[in-house]
Amino acid sequence: MDASKSKRWTGMGSVVALFAIHALGFVLVRSGAFNHDLAFVVVGGQKLLVGGQFGVDVTDPNPPLAWWLATAFLAIGNALRLAPQTSATVFTLALSFGACLFIARAAGTRHAIAAAIVLLALPGYDFGQREHWLAILALPWLLAAADWRDRRKLGRGMRTVAVASGAIGFCLKPYFVLIPIAVECWFLVRRRSLADALRPGNFGLLAIGVLYGLSVWALAPEYYTRVLPDTLAIYWAFDVSFAEILRIHALPSLLIVAGGAMLLRATTSVPPRAQALAAATLGALLAAVLQFKGWQYHFLPERAFAVIGAIWLIIDAAGLPGRAVFRFVALAPILFAALAPTVQRRGESAGALRDERALAATIRQWSRPGEGVFGFITTPRAVLPAVLRTDRRWRSGACCVQFVPALVRGDERGPSGAGRTRAVATRKLDDLIANLAHDPPRILLVDDRDFKLGFDAKPFDYAPWLRSDPRLRRLFAAYRERPGVAGFRVFVRQR
User: Fold this and answer.
1) pLDDT at 359 (0 to 100)
2) What's the rounded Cα separation, in Å, for the pair 103 and 97?
3) In the prediction, which pLDDT does 150 show?
4) DSSP summary character for residue 409
5) Can you tell me the distance from the alpha carbon of 404 to that of 426, in angstroms, rounded to the nearest whole number?
6) Is residue 482 within a helix (H) or strand (E), and if so which, with residue range?
7) N or C: which end of the chain has fewer CB within 10 A?
8) Which residues fall within 8 angstroms of residue 243, CB to CB, at 6 or more apart?
9) What is the pLDDT of residues 95-114, one digit of tens each?
10) Which pLDDT score, from 0 to 100, does residue 137 have?
């Protein structure tokens, strides 16, 4: 077999292997719980697809790119008569498959297969989170940034794809911009060449980011004028202290950083792609910490970059001088720190699936397709995936009543901040009551679980809070309480 045929068959082998891995991933993902944040992206995308506007009909603390992407994959899925959950899953897998094909061509089949396995196995319940999309979309850009000086590895077309992919990933959330900044700062120090940092690819990245910001202003100006200011006034209730973040995440992050340092130390000549992933790991860690939420999925990019970078370093260093045994030993703490949260949360995922199914059965029992559902909840976990399962309408532009914890805890902001918090939260409550009165949902769900997100781990009971407002009492007067399910009280409106 001549060299050209051998290369072609090798390429086909990569495609087949990657397709098989992603097909298996589809089976595993669809058999588990659907992520609640992805469910909100899908619910919001459905609203936008029928003429809704981000910032009015759909609101979220983050800008609208994820929802705009959702309109695209939902439109395709509707044309193919796919369930929205299937469309979202296939979209995420398609992103991963495309990124891994890029890796196979730019770095090699082994690198691509390693990345595919990590990208599909590591997220667990967080499959499809915006952090997961970021980890996928950033990889082509990281390869391009690492190999920028070697123009033989990547042609102009692949570099363009890498820039576009990275730009989409970094624009998903404002904090993600810290990742390319960390990578470029690292290479600027290492290479001592300002020309590298000022290369066309980075100007392209910046141009796409600016264009996106302007498009949000043109298409969803309410995000800047109302949603973002309101978020600053009320979203603090979901913050945790830096000490709490250290308590939860310091050891895993230290293990990742320490293991990475040992790996880099064990290799006399560190390939640029390993350097890029190491810098991206630190940038992703900083982005996660500065959000001050402490949620596990915020640390998913850090874990993904660390594991992929470590495996790639061992693959690349196979022919380089260095202590091979030490490299594999150094990989152990990285794998442990990255995989432990996923393994630890397997029970959580199973519980979310159980609650999702139970809520879906109750919603089907007491409502018809197309009727409305609303929940007094501070996290969409289980509720929004159940709404998607049942083809009902979510009767709010927001995922949950994020203003309630701020309203209840407003005095914690001190004299200067309490007034602003109370004013914004009160206005949101007024808007919600008017919205529910105008188009009453068939089912109201009230979170009755012991722990409710946003209340600083303190007990909170919705019942007395709901009774304290005469407008809410009048709203609930038209409902009859039914047996609760999965920790939620269930109220059904009389026909």
Assistant:
1) 97
2) 10
3) 61
4) T
5) 9
6) strand 479-485
7) C
8) none
9) 999 999 999 999 899 999 99
10) 98
Q: What is the per-residue pLDDT across 7-25, written as a single tens digit (0 to 9) for each? A: 444 578 889 999 999 999 9
What's the pLDDT tens digit per position in 478-489? 999 999 999 999
**Residues of the chain scoring pLDDT < 70:** 1-10, 149-153, 268, 318-324
218-245: burial string, b at 16+ Cβ within 10 Å, e else: eebeebeeebbebbebbbbbbebeeeeb
Tokens encoding 294: 């402490």
The whole-angstrom separation of Cα 354 and Cα 125 is: 13
Six token digits for residue 357: 């199914």
The pTM (predicted TM-score) of the whole model is: 0.94
Strand partners, 373: 394, 443
Q: Which pair of tokens denotes residue 16?
A: 């087949």
Could you tell me which of 6, 14, 60 has the C-alpha nearest to residue 399? 60
Taking a C-beta distance cutoff of 8 angstroms, is the pair 180, 209 a contact?
Answer: no
Burial 394-429 (b: 16+ CB within 10 A, else e): bbbbbbbbbbbbbbbbbeebeeeeeebbbebbeebb
What type of residue sits at position 418?
A
List, as one string, the DSSP characters of 115-158.
HHHHHHHS-GGGTT-HHHHHHHHHHHHHHHHHTTT-TTTS-HHH
